[in-house]
Design brief:
The protein is α/β, with parallel strands linked by helices. It has 23 helices and 18 strands. It has an 18-stranded mixed β-sheet that branches. InterPro entries: LRR_dom_sf. This is F-box domain-containing protein. It comes from Thelephora terrestris.
């Protein structure tokens, strides 16, 4: 090593020591030493730069060597000088990177350093890590600036094809050696998760932090809390409130909150309500709130909700009474649900009209249900101009006046979803409306054949229908219209007598892209599981409910412990469950199985693996549709071929065990929203709209 090089190294060492000592003094006397400190750093950086360039470009190949002098005998002083040289290069590079001054100079320093032989592995790791992080940060900064330029250019010249192609390029390059979840954008995984039922999405929680974050965002976006006399449910709800209060990140994941109350007024209710008021402000991203059950939502709680969440977009009041005085103060509602089923409510029915008028510019979905002994009518509410802006309207379990029916006709141009389930004051007038081609309606009149014929004729002209349930409409009329509706993806039919020819006609009339099917047989010649082979053509079928009221004189409902002894109950229950498993084993696409009024999740376990896995993720995901007893919806361009392409799979091997996990019983008042059936098609198909006072024995809700 030449004399000039040694002098250069001494200058760098001197500047390094001087800067270190003066830097320590700057903490006490910054005004006196700051200028000297900066000068030493500048001298050091300039010296190191010249030294690196000289070693890289000015020396010959034989002299491009930073280490002990080859001509020397390799004594300790040579190694000491060599270590100091490499330490100076590394320290200077790291200092510049930490100061945010990464650039060509740092690249040159690190290039010389990394080409030096005999470096310690931990030092090389430190250098590569620092350079990699700095390069990535610089690349992201340049990419962000490039995106800004592209967007500015897009505003200046929107028709430029090169600009459009640049906008479609990925923002970050992905390399083949990276894990797959790094190469696939987060938006794609988020989209995949949206098609997976929450019951199966829970397995993502144990894969990695990447998948856990995605799963948590979907699982906790909608939360149902049951607050009542049951200690387990109540303690679970209180633990949830504690988590929300302590973890703001978790609280921000919750977009929909549904509280199910089932307790008497008293100290317990007052305590839980007070706790809820204290935690209510923590739900900073709350968009939908529902109060379900008894005690009902009252004025004080309405004020609390309005104080902390004045911009809530969806409000549901589902219970026995209508006591929500003051809900008209909410003026950003997109959806309003009011279902009252008793006669001593405190709120004036005019409160509803005031609420509709206050949300005339935003409200698009209205669901009304009232089985009230006190005089009531929707006529005043339907005088609001908000009715003209609705796209979804549901009148369930209520009396529908001729004025309301005529009002619906006048606003039918914007309606895409409509449910009328109740009693018409003038059935003949409704028949005339069905005969006219104005809107689609289905009603709950069971034995009115002229009305059913008008409905079937009307339905047959709606080629884009996605879901169909005509209630107790005779099968002969339903069979006439099914072949004409290729877009159906969710169907519920009730057949008086099931034989093989009827099942064959049903399956032939339905599209192979069917997603959900509910078949109710009043009488069957033989067990319905014997017809399961006919359903194999539906490769995307994820929800199947087979319900038979009787086979001959034998009822097919679940064996009851009140009429059987323990031994007989166990034997009959095993027989009953084995029949259900036979259906699940034959249809590999089914994730949710309804069996004689009970509902199960199908879990398939490979004997060669310890992991139970779902069978299908082929679920259509969109906004939740309102429950109804007889309801039709349009597909709106979302083709069922998506489910067909996702849901196809090979047949399971003989080593797969079937396990049916029973779903929790649905509350009548929550209208099925509390149970996840994989998507809106399944939830709509298994809805319950029968009032709580009229619950039918055995789960026959058709």
């Amino acid at each position: 090593m030449g004399e000039s090089t040694r002098i250069t190294i001494l200058v760098m060492v001197f500047c390094d020591v001087a800067a270190l000592n003066i830097g320590n003094l700057c903490g006490a006397l910054p005004s006196a030493y700051t200028s000297i400190y900066v000068f030493c750093l500048l001298v050091r950086c300039a010296t190191v730069q010249k030294f690196a360039l000289a070693m890289r470009f000015g020396m010959s190949q034989s002299s491009y060597y930073l280490g002990p002098d080859k001509s020397s005998s390799g004594n300790a002083s040579d190694f000491l000088r060599w270590n100091k040289q490499t330490a100076i290069l590394l320290g200077t590079s790291l200092a510049l990177i930490e100061a945010g001054q990464y650039g060509p100079k740092v690249e040159e320093f690190l290039e010389v350093y990394l080409n030096t032989p005999g470096l310690l592995q931990e030092d090389v790791t430190k250098a590569l890590l620092a350079r990699g992080a700095a390069r990535r940060a610089a690349a992201e900064t340049l990419m962000a600036k490039a995106q800004q330029d592209i967007h500015v250019l897009a505003r200046l010249d929107p028709s430029n094809r090169q600009v459009k192609s640049l906008l479609q390029l990925s923002k970050q390059p992905h390399f083949g050696e990276e894990p797959v979840y790094h190469r696939v954008p987060l938006e794609i995984w988020d989209r995949v998760a949206s098609y997976i039922p929450r019951h199966f999405l829970r397995t993502w929680l144990f894969v990695s932090t990447f998948y856990r974050d995605i799963a948590q965002r979907h699982i906790f976006s909608a939360v149902d809390l049951h607050l009542g006399e049951d200690h387990e449910h109540r303690n679970r709800a209180l633990d949830f409130f504690d988590r929300v209060r302590e973890d703001s990140t978790f609280a921000r994941k919750i977009k929909k909150l549904r509280l199910h109350w089932s307790c008497e007024e008293g100290d317990t209710f007052d305590l839980m309500a007070r706790i809820f008021r204290t935690v209510l402000p923590e739900f900073s991203t709350l968009r939908e709130f529902q109060w379900i059950g008894y005690p009902e939502l009252r004025a004080d709680m309405v004020q609390a909700v309005f104080a902390h969440h004045p911009n809530v977009q969806s409000l549901g009041l589902i219970g026995w009474h209508f006591d929500a005085i003051g809900i008209s103060s909410l003026n950003n509602l997109h959806s309003l649900t009011l279902r009252a089923e008793d006669d001593d409510g405190l709120a004036d029915m005019a409160e509803l009209l005031t609420t509709l008028n206050a949300n005339s510019s935003t409200l698009t979905h209205l669901c009304l249900s009232a089985y009230l002994a006190r005089p009531h009518s929707w006529d005043s509410a339907f005088q609001s101009p908000t009715i003209d802006n609705l796209t979804r309207l549901d009148l369930v379990d209520t009396e529908i006046s001729h004025y309301v029916l005529r009002r619906v006709v006048t606003c039918s141009e914007r309606l895409t979803h409509l449910t009328l389930h109740g009693t018409f004051e003038d059935p003949r007038g409704a028949e005339v409306l069905f005969g006219a081609d104005h809107l689609f309606l289905v009603v709950g009149h069971d034995d009115d054949m002229p009305l059913h014929r008008a409905v079937v004729q009307f339905v047959g002209q709606r080629k884009r229908l996605r879901r169909l349930d005509l209630g107790r409409c005779p099968w002969e009329l339903v069979a006439m219209v099914l072949p004409e509706l290729d877009g159906l993806r969710a169907v519920r039919v009730r057949i008086g007598r099931v034989v093989e020819s009827v099942i064959d006609a049903l399956t032939e009339a339905l599209s192979e892209h069917l997603v959900a099917l509910h078949l109710c047989a009043v009488v069957a010649d033989k067990p319905v599981e014997s017809y399961v082979s006919y359903f194999k053509k539906f490769h995307s079928l994820s929800v199947l409910h087979l319900d038979t009221i009787s086979i001959g004189t034998e009822t097919m409902k679940r064996p009851q412990p009140t009429i059987l002894n323990e031994k007989e109950l166990r034997r009959e229950t095993d027989k009953w469950m084995n029949a259900a498993k036979k259906v699940a084993a034959a249809l590999q696409s089914v994730d949710f199985l309804g069996w004689q009024g009970e509902r199960y999740v199908v879990a398939r376990r490979d004997n060669n693996s310890d992991v139970a896995h779902p069978t299908s993720h082929s679920h259509h995901h969109s906004s939740t549709h309102p429950p109804s007893n007889t309801h039709l919806t349009h597909s709106h361009g979302r083709s069922g071929s998506i489910q067909g392409s996702i849901g196809r799979r090979s047949q399971a091997s003989a080593d797969t065990d079937i396990e049916l996990k029973e779903l929790p019983p649905r509350r009548r008042l929550d209208t099925g929203f509390g149970v996840d059936l994989g998507g809106p098609d399944g939830c709509w198909l298994e809805r319950i709209d029968v009032p709580i006072d009229y619950e039918l024995v055995g789960g026959d809700d058709t």
